[in-house]
Amino acid sequence: MLKKFDKKDEESGGGSNPFQHLEKSAVLQEARVFNETPINPRKCAHILTKILYLINQGEHLGTTEATEAFFAMTKLFQSNDPTLRRMCYLTIKEMSCIAEDVIIVTSSLTKDMTGKEDNYRGPAVRALCQITDSTMLQAIERYMKQAIVDKVPSVSSSALVSSLHLLKCSFDVVKRWVNEAQEAASSDNIMVQYHALGLLYHVRKNDRLAVSKMISKFTRHGLKSPFAYCMIIRVASKQLEEEDGSRDSPLFDFIESCLRNKHEMVVYEAASAIVNLPGCGAKELAPAVSVLQLFCSSPKAALRYAAVRTLNKVAMKHPSAVTACNLDLENLVTDSNRSIATLAITTLLKTGSESSIDRLMKQISSFMSEISDEFKVVVVQAISALCQKYPRKHTILMNFLFTMLREEGGFEYKRAIVDCIISIIEENSESKETGLSHLCEFIEDCEFTVLATRILHLLGQEGPKTNNPSKYIRFIYNRVVLEHEEVRAGAVSALAKFGAQNEEMLPSILVLLKRCVMDDDNEVRDRATFYLNVLEQKQKALNAGYILNGLTVSIPGLERALQQYTLEPSEKPFDLKSVPLATTPVVEQRTESTPITAVKQPEKVAATRQEIFQEQLAAVPEFHGLGPLFKSSPEPVALTESETEYVIRCTKHTFTDHMVFQFDCTNTLNDQTLENITVQMEPTESYEVLCYVPARSLPYNQPGTCYTLVALPKEDPTAVACTFSCMMKFTVKDCDPTTGETDDEGYEDEYVLEDLEVTVADHIQKVMKLNFEAAWDEVGDEFEKEETFTLSTIKTLEEAVGNIVKFLGMHPCERSDKVPDNKNTHTLLLAGVFRGGHDILVRSRLLLLDTVTMQVTARSSEELPVDVILASVG
Amino acid sequence: MGLLDKLSCLLGLKKKEVHVLCLGLDNSGKTTIINKLKPSNAQAQDIVPTIGFSIEKFKSSSLSFTVFDMSGQGRYRNLWEHYYKEGQAIIFVIDSSDRLRMVVAKEELDTLLNHPDIKHRRIPILFFANKMDLRDAVTSVKVSQLLCLENIKDKPWHICASDAIKGEGLQEGVDWLQEKTIQSNSGCEDMKR
Ligand SMILES: Nc1nc2c(ncn2[C@@H]2O[C@H](COP(=O)(O)OP(=O)(O)OP(=O)(O)O)[C@@H](O)[C@H]2O)c(=O)[nH]1
Ligand SMILES: [Mg+2]
Predict the structure, then answer these.
(1) Which domain of life is it from (chain B) (predicted)?
(2) What is the mean pLDDT of residues A303-320?
């Protein structure tokens, strides 16, 4: 009867939901019927349904009222009506966390689970496990063990799955049931085998060796259940991934052998696992792709869908591996299932030739309106990939994107489009103007704040450099008039950027900003006032520093420095140079292959990492008075080979006049404890070792840290690049591996480590300058130096650019790290801050003949950074 | 009670149903007693301490009993009261060999008798002085003294010595309970009159 209601409900769109107007208090009142005898099973089941409905609608039941209803429900156990009993089990599960004393039904449930009625037994097991906490578990352990090996599949499955849930809070008890689970794993029933395997895996999953053994055991004997196969495939591929996926592993052989399994499900799972293994090459992919190809012509839509979806994924990284399926994919383009068709087309867009693009785009636009946002995003991703591959096609692709932008769609979809358009604009300067004007049109009617502010930021950055900047002002100012405060603030910043770069427009920008000073919102007013004052000075340097290129300091660092300043006020004005820099540039750099929706945000993490170091170092008395931490090397360098006695990794910390080397040490010998560990360092340049801060003790496998403090070279301050030879010194005390008892007597020992390099990059922090030219002018040519070098070993411009960026550790600006095709000259623009807080900018002109010739021009507000750069390049 | 039910019990086709609460301290033998009263093919083989309660059914010559066999462990005793309202009769089981906890049993009994859902009802109470087979068991007379049963004035009560394992003394108790329940209840009698 309930079923019928549901169905009708679906058909008529909710109009006839019999539970629609339920009132909690009325339903709970009705539940008193449960106390009456004799019991009317139909009526009671209906009331229970109502209670469950309410709970599932998110209705809050107070503890008292819930408990009252629960106890009334317990009386229904005297009825033997099967439907009513099943409703009781459901109610028990739903109310187990809302009502008190739910353990009252324990004996009733154990009775049902061991009783004669098979229909009751499975559900009773599940309900019982739901109400049992770790303290009560012992009491039912015996029943659970019996149920796991019960010959009725539903009972065994229920017990196994419930055990899996119990594992979360009562691992140690459930662990004792593996023998029973093992027995269940050899069951002939496919579900029981699957569930048993699941439990076994989860009990052992923290023990790699045990998992390996389990996999090899089950793969040797073979399994009945396709579900179990699928699971083992997943476990195996996870294991492979952690092993760094060597392809000759028996695990891989197993997965590959599953491609020949008789169940489609297993075949698909294996193919999907292979495709998703990181670092899979064409050879490994081929068999997986060919089974997917077969699925493409399956009569089952689900299989076709799975196949084309997976191929689509493969095509992102290995388009050539999928070309073999092009014919099958072409057949799917007209599939009546639009999801399949979309995926087929977007896959073809990645694998097909440039000539097929127009045809495919036309095809897809014919049903774009019929597919869901999720698939539209897939289309956008495909277009974005195409733009990178065939820059010449950008006009047709852009037009397609603009059409999509104008249509209805959710945030993710619109964001994907905007991201894609922006990346096209950045790659192709010819498309900039059209792109910007379409985006302008979009923000005229854009409900997504994030997108609007993003576009405003882009307009401020790119608009002033176009031929006719004034045409964007109207769109931007409209935002100030029409939108809410976040967008208004973004618009004000964009306006200021036009004023800062374009003298003709400045007077009218000033007028507009003056109007914004009256805004209702604080932030908008503050920004307008600030920009107005800066612009009125009419100084290029100010514009560059405060409008065009924003703050590069770390925000938490600034907050702390300011707080410190207010606590200890001084005569000197606050010095922004004393604030640590943000460790990662503010603007994210997108790499080619990542899909546009996967936006990563590493900034916050990086900031906290440096924060942590700063705090740790500040706690060491020897390091007091070093000033603020300028930079910590992004990744520790290993000074030992892997799998040696001791594992030593070094992180370099740079201060204004000093460097601290932090050595994180681990002792992998279980029969030794090390004490008083230091790393002695011998520099090649005139660095001076000031002191060693030893690690007190290094017991087996417990990491410890020691430090070495050095002063930077004073006589020749440009000689910052240096090699240190390193030697670890310590006292060894032997100890008993089993008891951990340590000898009192020890002996001195030494251990030679690899050399440690300090390079110019350790003295420079990356900084993003959104407008390099303005920054270049701002710094001025007082300390400019220029030199020309020949890079004799380098054969291409890309290679040269990559090497320079890496070597100097500076930030490439205005996408100048991208070398356009078929050109033999290129200019690389780099920005950074030198230790001590001085901006350093480098312009490097490259010319490719047979080898690469490089002219380096460096500017800074001080002489030293410029000298350091030139000395290090030469 | 629906008309059909009344008819069928009038014609003796269906026995009248009675709700019984089975109370008493843990380990006193409640579950063992109830189990013994069930038809031999429905009896459980091994008996474990009850957690919460369990519902059991057995029949006497003219009644059908639905027993709420409650758990006697300390932390569950306060849950008994949830089931008082519907109880039409009470079986209270005492371990007659457990002298030490006789006071605890008395305390629980007094709390029961003073509960608002029980206090003013003429609800029959059957006491089983159980485990009479054990060597240090006291007599049922002694048990009734220790529990001050003579003070119960407003409810019919009866005490039987019993050995639940062999089943001795149980039938006597159930017969008494059947008689009292029929007396103190309307139901079928109303119809007969
Ligand atoms: N010797 C003897 N042992 C008995 C008798 N009745 C019960 N027992 C034993 O006493 C123990 C407890 O019996 P149960 O029936 O579980 O007691 P209970 O009152 O239900 O206990 P809870 O469920 O914990 O409240 C069991 O080991 C029985 O075998 C009896 O008359 N004589
Ligand atoms: Mg019991």
Answers:
(1) Eukaryota
(2) 89
